[in-house]
């Protein structure tokens, strides 16, 4: 689809006012995150994005992210987060998108999680490509290891094992590092209609990280070329609390 877009919103470490999510639809925390990114040809990404969006570019290049973390206490509206069903490891494969309103976002190609009920709810209610997987997160000193093996729906057996050594705090993240991590919404298709789900959270506390193990086929299973060579960026964050606002209509107006 050919867009005549507004200029993309500025890259920012802080959420735009429109993403403040003062009356949140969902609350949760994302903890112990590893962000691993490779450059990818925009021509390979464009067919995988929802209608109404195009690849978001930084200096003419777009990226695929493999992001592993611990979801913590997912809650609806202002209710307390759920301790067991709302807390689990997750690993997602994501792309970067921009729509005709200039809203920068992410598009999830897969989201592996270790709790079956949240996977089923997310697939049914939000049409998100969640996958039920056997997963673990282990920390030993300054090294964090994330493992997953897919159970359902598939491709069964798709896997990842990532280990990062956490380094020093990034005092002044670059514009590129904000581009990869500070994303203030999700683009998706819901019953054939474009949807944008805004989110807001404090600034990411980011650390440099060394990738000491990366054995995975989740990126290829998500329909993208298998990554070749070292990633262009590896970062770690202890995490942030997150609020999701109401989904925006195709015209860009949030639902009441």
Automatic annotation (TrEMBL):
Annotated InterPro entries: ADC_dom_sf, DUF2071
Pfam families on file: DUF2071
Disordered: annotated span: 1-20
Source superkingdom: Bacteria
Gene3D superfamilies reported in the protein's UniProt record: Acetoacetate decarboxylase-like
Record's protein name: DUF2071 domain-containing protein
Organism of this sequence: Streptomyces rectiviolaceus
